[in-house]
Each structure stands twice: as C-alpha cells, then as structure tokens.
C-alpha cells in the first residue's frame, strides 16, 4: 500500500494511487467549506463530475493530516482521472491558495 503520511506541507494538489483507489492530497489552505461540499456531493452522486467517472467511485472520505488534507476516493479510478475531474468540476480546489 502507498504511504501517504507526508511530513512536508503540500502547496498544490497531488493524487496517489492506493490499493483501493486514489488518495487526493490537498494543501491545508484548501477552502474547507468548498471541500466539505465537494466530498458530500461526491458521496451522493450529485457532483459536477463526468457520470462515467462518478460510476467508478464507491466512497469518498476526508481526513485532516499533518501538512495536508487527504480525500480518500475508493473505486476503480486513477490519479490522472481524479486530478482531471477536480480541475473540471472544482477548480477552486485545484488552484494553490495564497
């Protein structure tokens, strides 16, 4: 399994493949209210992502970890798919916050 415990604070989103899907690692400055809505809408299939992409996801959970936030996306998705969908459906999460 991929180790996503980072000790350096992230400055831009990263997606890492795991045994069960993808971990989306986000900077701690990511707007939490936007992220909460993003995660909640993903879990009920009401997000703006492509329907083919959404059909591959079985669950989405948010975790706060030292130096970053982690969105655990369970399902048959790849890191490239996750980053592409994030840019299209939630661009405010994809841009580094100043």
What does this structure look like?
- The structure is a single chain.
- Strand 3 and strand 4 (68-75) form a beta hairpin.
- This protein has a single domain, classed as Alpha-Beta Plaits, CATH 3.30.70.
- The protein is built from four helices and four strands, in the order E-E-H-H-E-E-H-H.
- It has helices at residues 32-43, 51-55, 79-89, 91-94, and strands at 14-18, 21-26, 57-65, 68-75.
- The longest helix has 12 residues, at 32-43.
- The chain is α+β, with helices and mostly antiparallel strands.
Describe, in short, the structure shown.
The protein is an alpha+beta fold and 98 residues long.
Question: What key phrases describe this protein's structure?
Answer:
alpha+beta, 98 residues, Alpha-Beta Plaits, 4 helices, four-stranded antiparallel β-sheet, globular, 29% strand, 4 strands
Number of helices: 4
Mean pLDDT: 85
How much beta, percentage-wise? 25-35%
- What's the architecture, going by CATH? 2-Layer Sandwich
- Specify the overall morphology: globular
CATH class category name: Alpha Beta
Sequence of secondary-structure elements: EEHHEEHH
Specify the helix fraction band. 25-40%
Q: Let me know the number of strands.
A: 4
**Which stretches are poorly predicted, pLDDT < 50 over at least 5 residues?**
none
Radius of gyration: 12 Å
Biggest sheet strand order reads 1-2-4-3
List the helices and strands and how they pair.
Blueprint: E1 14-18, E2 21-26, H1 32-43, H2 51-55, E3 57-65, E4 68-75, H3 79-89, H4 91-94
Antiparallel strand pairs: 1-2, 2-4, 3-4
């Amino acid at each position: 399994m991929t180790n996503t415990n980072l000790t350096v604070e992230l400055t831009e989103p990263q997606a890492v493949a795991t045994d069960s899907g993808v971990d989306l690692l986000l900077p701690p400055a990511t707007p939490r209210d936007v992220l909460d809505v993003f995660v909640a809408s993903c879990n009920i299939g009401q997000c703006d992502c492509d329907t083919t992409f959404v059909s591959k996801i079985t669950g989405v959970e948010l975790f706060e970890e030292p130096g970053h936030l982690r969105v655990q996306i369970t399902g048959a998705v790849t890191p490239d798919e996750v980053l592409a969908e994030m840019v299209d459906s939630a661009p405010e999460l994809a841009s580094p916050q100043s």
